[in-house]
Write a structure and sequence with these properties.
Blueprint: E1 9-16, H1 22-29, E2 34-41, H2 51-73, E3 79-82, H3 86-89, H4 92-107, E4 111-112, H5 114-125, E5 129-134, H6 138-150, E6 154-160, H7 174-184, E7 191-194, H8 202-212
Length: 215
């Protein structure tokens, strides 16, 4: 027994300090017997209105991730989860692998990232041709497209919502996401992939899967 509320596992979840969605959605999902402990990466300047701003935001992530991992490890988790996806796509397949190696070396734990999780899910579903949307700027969308292409997927499109700040990601209305999915859904697209952890899409994805008949 790991602990009373997490008898199966405790996950250390690393999130930006600007993120209001990851913890909410994890607890909402209610995975039986799994508990979560968040470690926060300090983001003093959340502006991401252009490519240079987005790169600066990643710099803040890289400067504070060690402290976030340190804090999460005090709860003695069984696994680390990176609850900020852009960094996990950076550098393509090898960049993601290198990021996971660094976190494993720092923590001594198995590591899950958004990039690897999406790849595994798409393989499980047998989907090859995908369309992707994000809250990002073009520089990050190129990295997302690069990762999926290098991972063997046919990327029909990557649509970025160009959110001006990290907090604005969580303010994108449901109607706008419906519109984006409608724009991306097309002939031959086998799955629509959403990246960006402060963009709450879990419940909406369930509804859209039922309406559109695809993942």
């Amino acid at each position: 027994m790991t602990n009373m509320v997490g008898p199966r596992a405790v996950f250390g979840v690393i999130v930006p300090s600007t993120n209001t969605v990851v913890e909410h959605d994890y607890w909402r999902a209610g995975v039986a017997g799994v508990a979560f402990r968040a470690g926060s990466m300090y983001i003093p300047n959340p502006v991401m209105g252009g490519d240079e701003d987005f790169q600066a935001l990643l710099g803040q992530i890289r400067a504070s991730i060690d402290t976030a991992v340190r804090d999460a490890l005090t709860a003695q988790p069984d696994r680390l989860v990176m609850g900020m996806s852009a960094e996990t796509f950076w550098g393509g397949v090898e960049g993601n692998a290198a990021f996971e190696r660094r976190l494993r070396e720092r923590s001594g734990l198995p590591v899950t990232t958004g990039a690897s999780a999406c790849r595994a899910a798409l393989h499980e579903l047998g989907c090859r041709r995908i369309a992707v949307f994000s809250p990002y700027q073009p520089i990050a969308d190129r990295e997302v497209g690069r990762f999926f292409t290098e991972a063997g997927f046919d990327v029909a499109a990557v649509t970025g919502l160009r959110c001006p700040t990290a907090m604005d990601i969580a303010r994108v209305p449901e109607q706008r996401l419906d519109e984006v999915v409608a724009e991306l859904e097309g002939p031959g697209v086998e799955a629509i992939v959403q990246v960006g952890t402060n963009l709450s899409f879990v419940a909406q994805a369930d509804r859209l899967e039922a309406a559109l008949g695809g993942p």
